[in-house]
Amino acid sequence: MPNPIDDMKALLQKREGIARGNRYGVHFTHPTLRKGQGSDNNWVQDGRDTWILCTAAILPGKRISTTEATHNHHLAKKPYSMATDEVSMSFLLTGDYYMKKYFDLWQEMIVDSTGNHYKTMYKNDYVADVEIAALRGDEDDSVGYSVTLENAYPIQVSQIELGEGVDGIVEVTVTWEYDNWKTTEDRKKKRSSANSWLPPLRGPHG
């Protein structure tokens, strides 16, 4: 007689255990570094700092857009397109407010608000690919599932509450807009993309 517990154990062993939401990695490169403007903003670091300071991330979903159509007197929904979700991430703020300055600079590259009249920049100058990986949680922290947000940029940076009653750590939340997201496997079909960006560390809260 089959044993449900043994069947579950066998299935989990076959499927490499249970997914753990606290094992993850994110990586993206600030447009200033990609454009060779690092000398003007030498405080902007590579992706390792953003990977370590990320306290929460969301793997995006997709939604099928439909329209109602009648066929043989039956009303049915017919798919005609697909929509993606906005993606948000939270980052721990250090004493120098590094991540706040990081995204402030990025947003100024999108819309320059330093003058009397706002100026919108060219999209190719401020977008970047954002990689999000769910790690298996094994000894090597290999990637179980990963996606790339293509041509992403921070559409919103959250406000930060300050006050005498505020205690504990302070975080900033960023919402990303992007063209589309694809799994790493889909992108490998176009070009080789090894996961070399993942630091040899465990998940930030592992």
Provide an overview of this structure:
The chain has 206 residues and is of the alpha+beta class. It has five helices and eleven strands, in the order H-E-H-H-E-E-E-E-H-E-E-E-E-E-E-H. 19% of the residues lie in helices and 35% in strands. Strand 3 and strand 4 (74-84) form a beta hairpin. Residues 191-206 have low confidence and may be disordered.
SSE blueprint:
Blueprint: H1 4-14, E1 24-27, H2 31-34, H3 47-53, E2 54-57, E3 62-71, E4 74-84, E5 87-92, H4 98-110, E6 111-112, E7 119-120, E8 128-135, E9 143-157, E10 171-177, E11 180-183, H5 184-188
Antiparallel strand pairs: 1-8, 2-5, 3-4, 5-10, 6-7, 8-9, 9-10, 9-11
Number of helices: 5
From the alpha-carbon coordinates, what is the Rg to the nearest angstrom? Answer: 21 Å
Regions with little confidence, pLDDT below 50 for 5+ residues: 191-206
What fraction of residues sit in β-strands? 35-45%
Order of helices and strands: HEHHEEEEHEEEEEEH
Alpha-beta classification: alpha+beta
Distance between the termini: 39 Å
Total number of β-strand segments?
Answer: 11
Quaternary arrangement of the chains shown? single chain
Largest pleated sheet? 7 strands, antiparallel
Q: What is the helix fraction of residues, given as a range? A: 10-25%
Shape: globular
Average pLDDT value? 80
